Amino acid sequence: MANLSFKIIEGTRSAGQSIFAHGFRSFLTTLGIIIGVASVIAVVSVVQGFSASISQQFDGMGTNVINIEPYTPRKARLQGVTAKISYDDFLEIKHQVKGISNVTPTVRVFGPNAVAAYRGQSTSTMVIGTASTYQKLYTVYPDFGRFFNLSDDKSRRRVAVLGPSIINKLDIKGDPIGQHLSVSGEWFKVIGIAEKRGKLFGFDQDDFILLPYSTTRALLGGAEEPNISISLQVDDMNNISQVKQHIKNLLRRNHKLAKDAADDFKIATADQMLDTFNQIIGSTTVVLGGIVGISLLVGGIGIMNIMLVSVTERTREIGIQKALGATRFDILLQFLIEAVFLCLLGGLIGLLLGFGAGSLISVATDLPPAAVPMWAVLLSFGFSAGIGLLFGIIPAAKAANLDPIDALRYE
Amino acid sequence: MSSQKTVIELRDIAKHYMMGSEGFYALNQIDLDIHLNDYIAIVGSSGSGKSTLMNLLGCLDYPSDGEYRLKGTNVATLDENSLADIRNREIGFIFQNFNLLPRASALQNVMQPLVYRGMPLAERKKRALDALTMVGLKDRVGHVPNQLSGGQRQRVAIARALVTKPAILLADEPTGNLDSSTTIEIMALFDQLHRDGQTLIIVTHEQEIADRCRRVITLRDGRLIDDFMNPLSEEQEGANG
To answer: What is the 8-class DSSP label of residue A369?
Structure first.
């Protein structure tokens, strides 16, 4: 086919004429593709924007931070065992593992809905007991007042650092520093307000109260030792795997784990958490993409249906074209191009709508700004064209195979 | 007499159809020579095989048997793509119901056959405008078929048939949908084409039309029963000339 490009140009010209001659019908035909592509782009843009913002947050944490959390293997969970990391574990790690600093215990106290109250107002919030080193690890620096220090921790002072949202929730008027509020019935003095971090996926990152770890221990009493998690900083990035191994050995020994038993804790670096997060985002994207793919498939079937109707409607025209010297290939190409053209047009409209919808969603729900990556654009267009080809081929073949005499006689 | 150069030779052509379990011949034992600048009417009652012969001559259909030579090529053995090419280059079709592309302008309709031979747009346009000028529709090139009268539509169709400079012009009841004054105009146009050297074949059941042609071929029950030179048309031509 030396003149294939000529035929494609001519086919595109005639496809354009035919599509715009039936403007409204063409629009309805391609609506499935428009909606499909619009949803791909909307979803991808929101997820990508979200992902970019998460990555940014992890960057603030530093790649040299290690997180140790209790982890109950599935089998143990079924036996009713819950893994635990104790304060003794914390002390051993702090004193025995070399090359680390800012070893920080954190503990969720008073359950998931601890109640904070101030002058008749009360609210539930997340209460964390931790050490003064917490601010360095998680870059939660106070905007007003100060963070608690070693001495607050040692002398179990009843002091609290508030997330900025607490001030609004409890309607604290005037300078909050130095005022008192109650947390689960115990009184604390506010010594600092943390920097504002904003909302993420509708989750308020500023809704927390930080207390000194030893204070919370004292409040909880000796009844049951709390389950803690430990965060620390590795001084030299090159030693990170050795440090991890050292901690692992130490915890396994402390927990008296048999040689073949699985770890009852998890040691994760910020990088790993970011990886895990990216995996989650990735599989979310794939699942959503699959759903959207199905909608595109349905759109494609709609296109095929209308193209088949269109072929029947234009049977006589096809007969005329054949009488004028059009080959099967000419007719096939003409209808294929029309289907692909229609799908690409739908893809383009869907792309614009999807981006608009994504931007609206992120504005309306406090999500980070929507971002459409190039691959999503190309994928949408490629997929649209593919749908056009796939579902255009049957109508096009039907048209191409029409007998010119029958087609000319068709009423 | 026109030059005896042969454009079409049909030798023992048959077209056989199956209707249920019974077969019948739509055409049988057709031998026919068509010469350059012939002006032929094919007449016969309905069911006589006129349309079948027309479709065969137009390379829209294959004969079941026999040999069809168009400018020396046996087209009965050609594949579909070659037949499409022959239709494009050698045959100009004119139909009773015009068969224009409804959404395309007169100009686009006339340019259409040239698309299939890969001619660039500028040249297509020039040729199509020439053809439309020749049939007297220079002022109507941008109109779509709906905006044209029956006579004008048939002129567009004639321009479209002529634009490829075909070896033969095949007209199937070209005036069947036209009133009598328009019929006279269209027939005058055919006469003009004949004088310009075009080979014309007109399928008709109207005696007036047949009378204008120089050679009349009569079919009955799929057989060629009469083929004679029309003395009336000679007379007329003499009168015109």
So the answer is: P
Rounded to two decimals, the ipTM of the complex is 0.90
Nearest chain B residue (CA) to A5: B118
Which tokens is A205 given?
């990152």
> Of B89, B55, B220, B22, nearest to A324 (Cα)?
B89
Identify from A7, A316, A324, A329 which residue to disrupt to test chain B contact, counting B C-beta atoms within 10 A and taking the largest count.
Answer: A324
The Cα A264–Cα A122 span in angstroms is 37
Contact call for residues A221 and A210 (beta carbons, < 8 A) = no
CA-atom Rg of chain B in angstroms: 18
Of A292, A284, A311, A312, the C-alpha closest to A384 is A292
What's the average model confidence in pLDDT over B150-163?
95
Quick one: A191 exposed, middle or buried, by C-beta within 10 A (0-12, 13-18, 19+)?
A: buried
Q: How far away is chain A from the Cα of B214, in angstroms, using its nearest Cα?
A: 26
Instruction: Decide: B46 and B218 in contact? Cβ < 8 Å.
Output: no
- CA–chain centroid gap for A29, Å, is 33
Q: Say which CATH topology domain B36-61+79-240 has.
A: Rossmann fold (3.40.50)
Where does the pLDDT of residue A395 fall: very low under 50, low under 70, confident under 90, or very high at 90 and above? Answer: very high
- Which of B120, B109, B122, B209 shows the shortest CA–CA distance to B163? B109
Q: What is the DSSP letter of A227?
A: P
Is A326 near chain B, with CB under 8 Å?
Answer: yes
Is B138's Cβ below 8 Å from some Cβ in A? no
B17 at A interface, C-beta within 8 A: no
DSSP structural state of residue A226: P
Q: Locate the chain A residue with the closest alpha carbon to B164.
A: A324
- At A139, list the tokens: 């870059």
- With beta carbons less than 8 A apart as the criterion, state whether B32 and B194 touch: no
Residues of chain B positioned with their CB less than 8 A from the CB of A18: 103
Concatenated DSSP letters of B167-196: SEEEEESTTTTS-HHHHHHHHHHHHHHHHT
DSSP, collapsed to helix, strand or coil, labels residue A88 as helix
Q: Which residues of B touch A317 (CB under 8 A)?
A: 101-102
Contact B52, B16 (CB under 8 A): no
The answer to whether the beta carbons of residues B177 and B97 sit under 8 Å apart is: yes
Any residues with CB less than 8 A from the CB of A362 and at least 6 apart, and which?
A: A45, A46, A49, A368, A369, A370
CA-wise closest residue to B185 among B241, B239, B141, B135: B135
Q: Using the beta-carbon criterion (under 8 Å), do B103 and A316 form an inter-chain contact?
A: no
Is B36 in CB contact (< 8 Å) with chain A?
no
| Contact between chains at A328 and B113 (C-beta distance less than 8 A) | no
Query: How do residues A74-88 score in pLDDT, each as one tens digit?
Result: 777 778 777 888 888
What's the pLDDT at B241? 40
